């Protein structure tokens, strides 16, 4: 086997060039528009902004300290349009702080039944408030075939 006594060195340095892009390719600078999906309703999501957390899960909720982290939390129940890789309809969302949202989506402190009951209780509290806010803003939710919300616990 041959051994090389001196390290290999390049006589001329490699030329550094930018990645060649087609001249007609657009620059990607703006954020992409969300993918259109059934049940998408921006009004339902916008109404959740600036609200307090409605889930209020004990020993999890950030309360007033988490007001800046409140986002729309969608239902995880099939009766509301949720499926594998499919988000529930936007009308089935409610304001939740980051900690409560994470607990409902992927936490392990509660069973699936407890999560569904907590979400249903919060949704029934949020629904009249959302209706009031929509009326005050002069907006309505987009027309969708609304699946009947099953009484608490019957769909689990």
Mean pLDDT: 79
Largest sheet entry: 2 strands, antiparallel
Spatial order of strands in the largest sheet: 1-2
| Termini Cα gap | 71 Å
> Shape, please?
elongated
CATH architecture of the domain at 47-137: 2-Layer Sandwich
CATH superfamily of the domain at 47-137: prophage-derive protein ybcO
The chain-level structural class is mainly alpha
Which descriptors would you attach to this protein?
mainly alpha, 156 residues, Erythroid Transcription Factor GATA-1, Chain A, 3 helices
Summarize the structure in words.
The chain is mainly alpha-helical and 156 residues long. The protein has a domain at 47-137: prophage-derive protein ybcO (Erythroid Transcription Factor GATA-1, Chain A). 27% of the residues lie in helices and 5% in strands. It is built from three helices and two strands; from the N terminus they run H-E-E-H-H. The chain has helices spanning 42-48, 98-106, 112-137; strands at residues 71-74, 93-96. A two-stranded antiparallel sheet has the order 1-2.
């Amino acid at each position: 086997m041959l051994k090389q006594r001196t390290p290999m060195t390049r006589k001329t340095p490699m030329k550094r060039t930018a990645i060649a892009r087609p001249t007609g390719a657009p620059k990607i600078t703006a954020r992409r528009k969300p993918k259109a999906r059934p049940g998408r309703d921006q009004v339902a999501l916008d109404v959740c902004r600036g609200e307090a957390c409605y889930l209020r899960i004990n020993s999890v909720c950030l309360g007033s300290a988490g007001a800046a982290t409140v986002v729309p939390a969608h239902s995880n129940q099939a009766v509301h349009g949720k499926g594998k890789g499919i988000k529930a309809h936007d009308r089935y969302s409610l304001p939740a702080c980051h900690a409560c949202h994470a607990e409902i989506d992927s936490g392990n402190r509660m069973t699936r039944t407890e999560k569904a009951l907590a979400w249903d209780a919060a949704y029934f509290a949020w629904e009249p408030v959302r209706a009031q806010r929509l009326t005050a803003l002069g907006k309505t939710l987009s027309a969708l075939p609304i699946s009947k919300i099953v009484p608490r616990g019957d769909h689990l």
